[in-house]
Amino acid sequence: MTVLVFTAVLLGLAAALVVTASRHGMPGFVPSVVEAQEYVLRDKDGRVRGAWGQDDEGAIRLVLQDYRDRTSIKLNLLDDGSSGITFSDSTGNARLIMAVLPDETANLVFADRRGVARTVLGLSAKGGSTLLFADGGGTTRSGIGVDNRGRSMFTTSAAVDTPEDSLAPPVDLAPKEAPKPARKPRRP
Length: 188
Known about the structure:
Layout: H1 2-24, E1 38-42, E2 48-54, E3 60-65, E4 71-77, E5 83-88, E6 94-100, E7 106-111, E8 117-123, E9 129-134, E10 140-146, E11 152-156
Antiparallel strand pairs: 1-2, 2-3, 3-4, 4-5, 5-6, 6-7, 7-8, 8-9, 9-10, 10-11
């Protein structure tokens, strides 16, 4: 009888240890590294709200989206060394883009509600800086800056009276589709 009680207590303690370790972690039971090819964030209703992984072209992306499956924030690191972050508005159009290109140029792009780049602040690898302003069609109309030799620059072009409905269609600066996991995640 004593052996049976001792065995039951020992099994109970072992079960409690396993349950505690699985819920809260214990030294020796918690991995110091978590590895995966893709992470998918889902809300309480199971909708994808974010993804972190590598796409088919080799780019590393962290994508966050709203509850309507519209990308809101995208962080990219491309194979060529380019990196950038895109902020989109509530309709999914890219409105603010910060990027560093492989040639070491850095740009900050502001787009209008249609996704057309209207203002660009740039810094070249050799030290020149520019601020460009574009019309509703995306055509540069004015710019100021300092070249890499320290000389000031100013440019302007005559505005063309163009009816709003004949402007170029907006440039799609960011994909509007929701991030999709590479494969269907398993439910716990």
